[in-house]
Design a protein that fits this description.
Chain A is an alpha/beta fold and 205 residues long. Chain A is 22% helix and 29% strand. Chain A is built from six helices and 13 strands. In chain A, strands 2-1-3-4-13-12-11-8 form an eight-stranded mixed beta sheet. Chain B has a single domain, classed as Aldolase class I (TIM Barrel), CATH 3.20.20. Classes of the chains: A alpha/beta (205), B alpha/beta (259). Chains A and B meet through helix 1, strand 7, strand 9 and helix 6 of A and loops of B.
Chain lengths: 205, 259
Amino acid sequence: MRVTVIDYKAGNLTSVLKALRHLGAETIVTDGDLEPIESAERIVLPGVGHFAATQSLDATGLTPAIRTAVARGVPFLGICVGMQWLYAGSSEAPEQPGLGHFSESCARFSESTEKVPHVGWNSLDVRPGSRLLAGVQPGEHVYFTHSYKAPVTADTAAVTQYIEPFAAAVERDNVMGVQFHPEKSGATGLKILNNFLRWEGTGNA
Amino acid sequence: MITKRIIACLDVHNGRVVKGVQFVDIIDAGDPATQAARHAREGADEIVLLDITATHEGRATLLDTVRRTARELFVPFCVGGGIRSADDAAQVFEAGADKVSVNSAALADPTLIDAIGRSFGAQAVVVAIDARRDPQAADPVRDAQVFVQGGRKPAGRRVVEWAREAEARGAGEILLTSMDSDGMRSGFDCELTAAVSAAVGIPVIASGGAGTVDHFVDVFGRGKADAALAASIFHFGVSSARSLKEELAKAGVSVRLPC
């Protein structure tokens, strides 16, 4: 199992790499070299921090390479800001476009008496048929830390409630994203990463 | 529903876990990597490793301890002690920490909070505040003072103001330790925790004084804490995070179970 992990200098990759290797994956990190994207078997786009950091994906020419890889059916997992980047954009950095695989945009949590960022373990309401979240039981919790979130749509794979319902996971064909941090979500998180690593694909890869 | 976090804290001195009573009388309590793994297995929602010797002995954080501890840990892992620059923080992240906690260095140079937040995101910056009530003040809670050097020296800042500044500079969480309660096992300082929690929009982790389940119920209730840190309650087999959380659930506190 070979996974190409994209380093776009937003936060650190150590935890994600550690979890993938723990599950038996061989990891290749790229911060601008296109070859590991072009030959990728699977791609993980981690990410913590500010949506504006995804600008470096454009600057290094990774965005078109990712678009091509996604089009040929390579399983792709975006984590946290990496998931948000799959959408058209985010109000956190309105001038910075996302990949646009999902047509909606991400926005900050609504004004509330609750604290923002949403930090901590929260539960998942998994929609039937999710491949990424297969085996996740009602009441299992995962770890979140974020201030912006994606809307609930037909592509949403799991809904979490904090201030308002938002997309905790998204999934369409070979493209998946999680707002939470599976690499920091104990046994539940490892199960989800393992689902991604073992997923056989759509058949057109 | 968001749950209240139970955070296991490992105070580390020369690569060993220790627990002091009011930061003196230090007792040996084991190997950090072993202890962290055990706490995670037994249901802790997060692990904090504080190198309590780092600041006043001028030593760098024990990167090797961090690396060993992080290796098989798949819950959030925060490291504090001796982090004086964004470069120090980068090394700790590289070794496997998800968050760093900064204390006296941030008081000496508050722009450290901005610098780490810019490079690693606000979620990675925890500002630790060691607080004592000011018994001379008209309002000992509102006027509680920040202390440095393991609680020995006043920093000349009020706790609530410093927490607000830390948030404005980009801190993601506040770790508030009551030096009056620390190690006493007589309960958290709920009034002080509530005052800080009401003053900021970021999560507040309460620390200092955990001794019984009721102390946790109290700090999540009237203390308005988002998370609570425990050390002495777990050492020496008093209780596990799981059994603590099962008791909390019975008392109506939302916690991560099963875990």
